Amino acid sequence: MDIKQMLMEEHRLRQGTQHDYDTSLPSPQDNIDPTEIAIYIAQLSGELADMSRKARLDVIAYFLEMVREEARKTARRGRPVTEIRAQLAR
After folding, report:
1. What is the pLDDT of residues 54-77, one digit of tens each?
2. CA-CA 20 to 30 A from 75: which of 24, 41, 42, 65?
3. 72: exposed, middle or buried (C-beta count within 10 Å: 0-12, 13-18, 19+)?
């Protein structure tokens, strides 16, 4: 199961809770790869930035682009650039 599927499953399981945000932190036993998370954040924030731009929410789009660039930088520190580009292209 990849990180996106894990996060979607976790979100699905938590929909029945009283609040709509996660109050827990992942434990070291969760084996979450920070590079995988950074890649996912880069993909997601890029998509949200595109949506924001289309809706003329320029300030939000700008901040989401900043998030995407920071996530890409973080991912590059953990993996070779060619591997990251291949995953971001999916």
Report:
1. 999 999 999 999 999 999 999 888
2. 24
3. buried
